[in-house]
Amino acid sequence: MKIYVVSGLGADFKVLEKIQFPKQHEVVFLDWMIPEQNEEFQHYVQRMAEKIDDSEPFYLLGYSFGGILVQEINKIKPAKKVVIMGSIRSDKEKSVLIKTGQITRIPKLLPVRFFNEKTTSIYSMFRKFFDPKNPRILQYFQVRDPYYLKWSIEKISDWKFEENPDVIQILGDKDIVFPIKNCRPDYIIKGGTHLFPATKSKEVSGILKGVFE
């Protein structure tokens, strides 16, 4: 069976490269696409879902923003199982910071040029959010198109979703992007920051082996 995987906001699959996926399944990584100008989120989800062959059963796995995306894809093309890592199951699990962005509309008001990779503000922001002690942070953060970044942060801020109890949630207890205090995860990674798929890969691999048996 295929496991379709979507990584996090701006991240390529280096953040997931240490994970040992169950050998009996085929892993298919879905690359982020650059959104069309003023593209609605549901239209973008539909385009991403077109990459999935639903003529046979499959699994969905999403990390961070990818976790949000695979839950939306699941409404269009239902998977046998949906697993999210370092992500949330509903808008009720958003952090105070993300909720503030939704209320104040700051992400929408920020100019695209703010998301230029050369600016110290965006650099420091992502270091703080993901894992300030990890020296490889910018190696994971490879999709740096300014419009894509602005668009994605707007969509995370605005996301509304009713929790699906069948979605399997794996969360780090030190995650400051999606704090565990707002969630009831199925699996907790002790000492795991938002980058736990990279820093706690052995533990994650064991969990996924059991989930995708």
TrEMBL record:
InterPro entries: AB_hydrolase_fold
UniProt-recorded name of the protein: Alpha/beta hydrolase
Species per Swiss-Prot/TrEMBL record: Chryseobacterium profundimaris
